Amino acid sequence: MANLLVIGTQWGDEGKGKIVDLMTPAFDVIARYQGGHNAGHTVYVNGRKIVLHLIPSGILHPGKLCVIGNGLVISPQAFFQEVSDLELGGITADRTRIAISPNAHLIMPYHPLLERISEEKKGEKKIGTTCRGIGPAYEDKAARCGIRAGDLLNLEILEEKIRTNVEDKNQLLSTGNLGPLDAGRVFEEFAGYASQLGPYITDVSVLLDREMKRGKSVLFEGAQGVLLDIDHGTYPFVTSSSSTAGGAATGLGVSPKKIDGILGITKAYTTRVGAGPFPTELTDERGKKLARRGDEFGATTGRPRRCGWFDAVAVAYSCRLNGIDRIALTKPDVLEDLEEVSICVGYTYKGTRLKSFPTEHWILEKVVPEYLTVPGWRNSVHRAADAHGLPQSFKDYIRRIEDLTETRVALISTGVERRDTILLESELRGFVDVDKVRSGLRG
């Protein structure tokens, strides 16, 4: 059975949670490879809204194994709260269903404090982070002084690392009048997590290899989006991890050869949270209308998202960079009733038309988008039963997107529920067991 990677093609918030949930019935293992609890996946099941932050969306399906890879940074408090919320909702989230890599780094109490200091110092140039400690945890990982989940299994090592780190961090915290932290209390807190988190910790690289050799299929789950990738996104207004397809291999310890297909999740318009360049942003009433109709507020933070027209230049860049095989198009119903819809088909910078998407923020901030305006679809696409019932103007919109991104659309999400989905079977077959996916649409 083929292994599939689900990845966001924009600045995140494309609807990956729903798509992973939809695809899960066709897979045995769902493995997330990067990010922290700043990334939220929202899934609706029979009218019930479920928000996940660290645990893969596959947890909502009984019998599926969910993996948290070494590419993540984990807040133990956030993880235990998520487990508790799931258990209260009748969803099993114990060690029989969740595996955590010992090499995943932990978010320590000083990380959110340091992030707050860093953001305040930037003033108007701040990145707009969630201040949950994600970035500083990745900084410590790169600086080779981070504390990993596996360290919880050796309290002597854990105490030594905590005391060294707290001593160093207190010097930095003093500049923001936030310190000092007590190393003994921090150690006591995290030593307490050892017995709780320990049963979940296992070598996920070995686990995934073993499962695949047994013929089990894996669904690789990304967080955020390609344009927020630390290397290939709109730096420095990016996340701190590798959200591109390459991050799946490094973030889980698997060979890139094990990824058989890549499904790019793409919103029918564009959104962005926080600061950073956004060429197609609508700052007028049209943008506010999209935000209201699309309920564009962060699943984890509640922050409002900036909204704009579909940016084919950006999505084509993501498709090329990641070798995306098919697109899952989400939220076209939000654009209903518009007389005209615009698509960004190119950028001009200082009078010259650019040949590709620029990741330099000082260029992207000043590009002039070139738009193609097409007729809107006055007839509703919300909960359309199949592709045959879609308005012709919307079908034409899809064809434009496919031509501009050089990637075919294989799935259309027309609402928040599982059943609000149109599967274009001829495009999906070969990448996923369509019959199993379809059986899950009714759940």
How do you describe this structure in short?
By secondary structure, the protein is of the alpha/beta class. It is 32% helix and 19% strand.
Structure description:
The protein is built from 14 helices and 19 strands. The chain has a nine-stranded mixed sheet, sandwiched between helices. Strands 13, 15, 16 and 17 form a four-stranded mixed sheet that branches. The mean pLDDT is 93. The protein has two domains: 4-95 and 203-440, Adenylosuccinate Synthetase, subunit A, domain 1 (Adenylosuccinate Synthetase, Chain A, domain 1); 105-199, Adenylosuccinate Synthetase, subunit A, domain 2. A hairpin with a 2-residue loop joins strand 15 (340-349) and strand 16. It has helices spanning 16-23, 76-88, 110-122, 134-142, 155-173, 183-197, 204-213, 246-252, 285-293, 312-322, 361-364, 392-405, 425-428, 434-440; strands at residues 4-8, 29-32, 41-45, 48-52, 65-68, 73-74, 98-100, 105-106, 218-221, 261-267, 270-272, 306-308, 310-311, 326-330, 340-349, 352-353, 368-375, 408-413, 421-423. By secondary structure, the chain is an alpha/beta fold.
Mean of pLDDT = 93
Indicate the CATH architecture of the largest domain.
Answer: 3-Layer(aba) Sandwich
Question: What is the rounded Rg?
Answer: 22 Å
Which stretches are poorly predicted, pLDDT < 50 over at least 5 residues? none
Tally of contiguous helical segments: 14
The assigned structural class equals alpha/beta
Number of domains: 2
Question: Would you identify the CATH H-level superfamily of the largest domain?
Answer: Adenylosuccinate Synthetase, subunit A, domain 1
The CATH class of the largest domain turns out to be Alpha Beta
Strand share of the residues? 15-25%
Query: Which outline best applies?
Result: globular
Distance between the termini: 23 Å
Q: Quick one: how many beta strands?
A: 19
